[in-house]
Write a structure and sequence with these properties.
Blueprint: H1 4-55, H2 94-101, E1 103-106, E2 116-117, E3 136-137, E4 146-147, H3 154-162, E5 166-170, H4 176-187, E6 193-197, E7 205-209, E8 212-216, H5 222-235
Parallel strand pairs: 2-3, 4-6, 5-6
Antiparallel strand pairs: 1-8, 5-7, 7-8
Helix pairs in contact: 2-5
Length: about 260
């Protein structure tokens, strides 16, 4: 029969073992809780990033239509402003619209090649301004489809042209209401299309596809928008040697706009 001393020792060991089991259980709860909290935080961050990209961030409204499946943003901030809805198209003939808008129309320009160069390379001596073909950044740094609040690097957006994209560009000095009119036009044809300011070109508004350019010294409202829409109908997706579908997109295009 166990002595009183032995019984006390047995009970002490049982108590110690129970306390150790309780501490192990508590440590396990802490580890699991920390892991779950980490997952929740990661999900919240992901949601914030998605919202920021789609809305343009910075408290703006509307959507920038950034499509990262088509390329890279290259750190260029999005334009999430809400555009002004465009008026229905009236002039559907490209040459007529360009003439009435006072725009220079240059179709079938010389192809300056499609050599791939490294990100950050010096800008090649493009023969048109804005450029319409020539050496450009290597994949996957082609500028992604979307509206941007700053001008991307030329070598980045020239690569996008090679894949059938159209790019609508405007002078940063263009009045805000006219910028919003162009943004509203862009919102009707944003798939496989880019919109951004360009302070280097000699136009207030321009649109380009591979080897094609329409440049307007003055923005004249609806007729300028008609000229851009007609230019898109005429040239989007037809030049560059690379089909637009090589990079997935979903939504209205210049060939089939929403309005």
């Amino acid at each position: 029969m166990a002595s009183r001393k032995e019984e006390k020792e047995r009970l002490r060991r049982l108590r110690v073992e129970k306390e150790e089991r309780q501490r192990a259980t508590e440590r396990k709860r802490v580890v699991i809780g920390t892991a779950v909290a980490g997952v929740v935080v990661a999900v919240i961050i992901a949601v914030i990033v998605v919202v920021a990209v789609s809305s343009g961030g910075g408290g703006t409204s509307g959507a920038s239509h950034i499509n990262v499946e088509s390329g890279s943003t290259n750190g260029v901030p999005p334009d999430g402003r809400s555009g002004t809805a465009p008026q229905p198209v009236k002039v559907t003939d490209l040459k007529t619209a360009a003439r009435q808008a006072g725009c220079t129309l240059r179709l079938g320009l010389p192809d300056e090649g499609n050599e791939h160069i490294a990100p950050g390379s010096p800008t090649p001596p493009y023969e048109t301004n804005p450029p319409t073909s020539g050496p450009h950044v290597e994949p996957p740094y082609q500028q992604a489809d979307g509206a941007y609040s700053q001008m991307p690097e030329e070598i980045d957006f020239v690569h996008s042209l090679e894949h059938g994209r159209m790019e609508i560009q405007y002078s940063p000095s263009l009045p805000e209401k006219d910028q919003l009119a162009l943004k509203g036009l862009y919102d009707t044809m944003y798939s496989a299309t880019l919109l951004f300011p360009n302070g280097k070109m000699p136009y207030q508004v321009a649109a380009t596809t591979w080897t094609n350019l329409i440049g307007c010294k003055t923005y004249k409202g609806a007729i300028t928008e008609d000229a851009i829409r007609d230019f898109g109908k005429e040239t989007w997706g037809k030049y560059g040697g690379e089909p637009p579908e090589a990079f997935p997109f979903n939504g209205p295009t210049p060939a089939n706009p929403a309005a």
